[in-house]
Write a structure and sequence with these properties.
Elements (H helix, E strand, L loop, with lengths): L1 H67 L3 E11 L2 H14 L3 E8 L10 E9 L3 H8 L4 E11 L1 H27 L3 H33 E10 L11 H29 L1 H49 L1
Helix pairs in contact: 4-5
Length: 319
């Protein structure tokens, strides 16, 4: 009896062991099958990470697009010395026309007749923003560049706010039109029309601001100061040889200018000299006649008086 019972118990134990082994295998299989899901989750996470990076990249591109669409106002100024003043002015006019710009303001002084001051000019030009660098490079051929400066002002935020304000006003304007159509009372209609006129005025003002900003952005402002000189300001070190050279050249130019002024003065005053000669020659002739006749009469009178004095003296001596 013991043998069958023991065999039965042994069979039951082996069955239990086999079942436990299958359960462990199934759990292992389950774990193995679950691992791809986790890897898939990690892959999806990585894909999500890649997607976020791509999204960031798109944002970055969008950022670059926003950067490209920024509203920038560029300004520049040049101070120039020129030995050929009128030629420089003509060159500026040519540059402005060639680059599609226009002259906003122009002031030229020192060209009055008889003025000893050198001429100078202050010119404000508007150049398309895309042509600003080309214009500045071309302006360097005008003469000796003393100073050059450039500045940029970012008005993107101001422009965006102004656009948003205009959009809001347009929305309110459309709503007011609808309310006026639906209004039945005369008081409501009058009140709505008053508000409508106010909104229309604000819209016109904001639109003008946007146009002004667009003009400032599309056309850069360049201020030019041009001075007529006889010698360019030296950019080299101010050593003694350079000072001697500059002083010598200035002396020659001063002497040449003095001689030219003297020649101009003499030639331009020929009519006055001719009239003065016509008056002076007869006057000098009369003066000489008068001056020569007066001494002769005086000498005759003086001779008679001397003779009388001598005769009286002789008479006294004889006595």
């Amino acid at each position: 009896m013991k043998n069958p019972l023991s065999r039965f118990i042994t069979v039951i134990i082996m069955t239990l062991l086999l079942m436990s082994g299958c359960g462990s295998d199934r759990s292992a299989v389950t774990e193995q099958s679950s691992e791809p899901s986790y890897s898939g989750a990690s892959d999806s996470a990585e894909m999500t990470g890649d997607g976020s990076e791509n999204k960031d990249g798109i944002d970055a591109d969008g950022g670059n697009e926003i950067t490209d669409n920024r509203k920038l106002i560029r300004r520049a100024s040049l101070t120039i010395e020129s030995t050929e003043f009128q030629k420089s002015i003509n060159h500026i006019n040519g540059l402005v026309s060639a680059h599609g710009g226009y002259i906003q303001n122009s002031q030229i002084s020192g060209n009055r007749y008889g003025s000893q001051d050198n001429r100078s000019a202050y010119i404000v030009v508007r150049i398309p923003d895309t042509k600003l660098s080309l214009f500045l490079d071309g302006a360097e051929d005008l003469g000796n560049i003393i100073s050059r400066s450039e500045s940029t002002e970012d008005v993107t935020a101001q422009y965006t706010d102004t656009q948003a304000k205009l959009t809001s006003l347009k929305t309110e304007f459309d709503r007011l039109l609808v309310l006026i159509d639906r209004a039945e009372k005369l008081e409501d209609i009058i009140r709505l029309e008053e508000r409508l006129s106010q909104v229309r005025y604000q819209m016109d003002s904001v639109t003008a601001q946007l146009k002004m900003l667009d003009n400032e952005v599309d056309f850069s402002t360049v201020s030019l100061e041009i001075y007529e000189v006889r010698l360019f300001t030296s950019s080299e070190e101010n050593d003694i040889l350079q000072r001697i050279k500059t002083g010598f050249m200035e002396s020659i130019l001063s002497l040449s200018s003095m001689i030219q002024n003297l020649i101009v003065a003499v030639i331009s005053n020929i009519p006055y000299i001719f009239v003065a000669g016509i008056i002076a020659v007869p006057a000098l002739y009369l003066f000489r006649r008068v001056s020569t006749s007066i001494p002769v009469k005086k000498l005759k009178k003086r001779g008679k008086s001397d003779g009388n004095n001598k005769s009286s003296e002789n008479n006294n001596d004889q006595k």
